[in-house]
Amino acid sequence: MAFLSGLLSVSLLLFLTGLLFNIPILQRYQDDARMAAAVMFVLIGVMHLVKPGKLSYMIDGWLPYATQLVLLSGVLEIMLGIGLLFPATKIYAAWGLMILLVLMFPANIYVAVKQLPPPGGLPAKAWYTWSRLAFQPIYILWVWWCVR
């Protein structure tokens, strides 16, 4: 949910900045949404690299090399997030992010089923861990919409 809040907040901030300073590219909500996705994926990717232990528990025990997979996903999120910013790579980056989101979905299911605490140290309340599953398709749709 924090990721969605970030997407919405950054998009709105960019849009309002575009209106306030009359910046045409920032007055197109689809471009703002794409830039917001880039910012959020880069930020979450950096978090994967800085604190992989805060995420590796989500796959530890059922996938080998949990820490290395978290680090790899962080690098991919950063690279693909940056790729959203360039016209020549935005479609490829979007497809990469959508695939990555699908590949990460089982980890979120595992957290919900095992009643583990969600990333970020939030309490392992069943309503929260299960509700997080509904947001993954929203992120996929966001990425698809903002580059089409």
Assign a percent range to the helix content: over 70%
Gyration radius over CA? 16 Å
Number of helices: 6
How much β-strand is present in the residues?
under 5%
- Stretches where pLDDT falls below 50 for ≥5 residues? none
Note the overall shape: globular
Number of strands: 0
The end-to-end distance, rounded to whole angstroms, is: 24 Å
Note the run of SSEs as H and E: HHHHHH
Structural class by secondary-structure content: mainly alpha
- Residue-averaged pLDDT, rounded? 94
Biggest sheet features:
none
Number of structural units classed as domains = 1
Detailed description of the structure:
The longest helix is centred in the last third of the chain and has 24 residues, at 90-113. The radius of gyration is 16 Å and the shape is globular. The model has no long low-confidence stretch (mean pLDDT 94). It has 148 residues and is mainly alpha-helical. It has one domain (2-147). Helix content is 74%, strand content 0%. It has helices at 2-21, 29-50, 53-56, 66-83, 90-113, 126-147. The chain is built from 6 helices and no strands. Helix 5 (90-113) runs antiparallel to helix 6. This is DoxX family protein. Keywords: Membrane, Transmembrane, Transmembrane helix. The chain crosses the membrane at residues 6-26, 33-50, 62-85, 92-112, 127-147. It comes from Chitinophaga tropicalis.
